[in-house]
Amino acid sequence: MESSRNRQNNTNRVVLYMYGVPRKSSSGAYLRFYSNCRAYLDLGFQVEVVQVVTEPDVSAAAPELPVTWTHVVANPPPRSVMGALMYRAGYPGEAAAAYYFARHTAVRREAMLRERQYPGCLHQFENFCESPIPFLSGINTIWSCHDVGSEVVALSNRIDQTLASRGASIPERRELRFIRNFERRVARNSRLIVCITPKDRDAIRSEWGYLNVEHLPMSIPDVPAVVDRTDWVRSERLNLLHVGAIAHLPTYRSLEFLLTEVFPRLRTEVLERISLRVAGEILADNSRCQRILALCTLYPQVQLLGKVPDLLPFYASSDLQVAASTEATGLRTRVVESFGFGLPVLSTTAACRGVAGIRSGENIVLADTAEAWVQALESILKSPSQLSRLARNARATYDTMHSPTVVAAALASFLTKYFTTESPLV
């Protein structure tokens, strides 16, 4: 009787396990963390964030979020022979999980501690922390899937193979096989899976055969939109913004496309009226970064900012965010961020594939070839007034499909659908 009462008392408590921190002034995964935390808080949940890292991290979470904060440094156990053998065979057992995932043992330990302390609470595992899910029987597990891991690994390997002019290596094939097997086991054992886009949701349902997966939109923190600006293309210069760590798969592909396919096709008089600011971490010894750095030397209008503490000033002072990735992963969150800020977006179809509410020519400009990008940039320079319409429509799309209220309502419906205990509703 007492145990049942304790479980009932913990139905409005959630623990979110993540490798980073919710940040109000960041982008990508960190804003997704923020969005998820905020949705639970809006529903009246008691929220604890457990950040599990492989080395101490002094970065601060958003102080305005009233969550309990726990920082854990993972000390991976010695790699076992059994784990190595299971990994090489592609078998998704726990020894293999501990062998491959540096945070596995620490995250599993923290989840078991929380379950003993708060039996019946929700445990949400953000991307890269989901490996313990198959081994936590009887626990209310939610996998927050930012990207399908096997797709990311396959695309990343392809870049490395291209840069080295070689085919797939045995370790690469082995890793991909293991990840494919393991992510399906995670899905099979998750009570609920929430994806960033409807595309990922539908793929997991149709290709993997699991129906316990939903699309949970992403919001951004409350910030002033830039839709009321009247100074687009100031001094007749089109200020482009590109966001993302350069070594990151979609960022690399995007900059590679811009610098090798688009910029060489731009007329000199057009190039002279364009500036491109790239905000994202640069790793000096990374081969992808080295290639992008070399390409940038050809274009003085490209400014590499490195990792910036706050993106808001750059959103406010740019005319257009560009997302030119040829791979359908990663940059999708950047599109949602731009919509929230009311900053127009020029994107490939792949870079925004799956983002709800996309309407080319109305709230975004889509271009899939270098020639189409050239035409789009020249058109905007010729008629910058179209940026105001794109900005208004982008923000309206965000308010309708991605706002915090929309996210909280969607989360409430999923919790009611997939968990037997009642969940707070908006």
Entry summary:
With 426 residues, this protein is an alpha/beta fold. The protein has helices at 2-9, 29-42, 81-89, 94-100, 104-117, 149-164, 170-189, 198-208, 249-262, 268-271, 287-296, 312-316, 332-341, 370-382, 386-401, 404-418; strands at residues 13-18, 46-53, 68-73, 122-126, 140-145, 192-195, 213-215, 238-243, 274-279, 302-306, 320-323, 345-347, 365-366. The protein has two domains: 2-219 and 403-418, Glycogen Phosphorylase B (Rossmann fold), CATH 3.40.50; 234-401, Rossmann fold, CATH 3.40.50.
Structure, explained:
With 426 residues, this protein is an alpha/beta fold. The chain contains 16 helices and 13 strands. It is globular, with a radius of gyration of 22 Å. The two termini are 30 Å apart. The relative contact order is 0.12.
Keywords:
426 residues, 2 domains, 15% strand, globular
List the helices and strands and how they pair.
Layout: H1 2-9, E1 13-18, H2 29-42, E2 46-53, E3 68-73, H3 81-89, H4 94-100, H5 104-117, E4 122-126, E5 140-145, H6 149-164, H7 170-189, E6 192-195, H8 198-208, E7 213-215, E8 238-243, H9 249-262, H10 268-271, E9 274-279, H11 287-296, E10 302-306, H12 312-316, E11 320-323, H13 332-341, E12 345-347, E13 365-366, H14 370-382, H15 386-401, H16 404-418
Helix pairs in contact: 2-16, 3-4, 6-7, 9-11, 9-14, 13-15
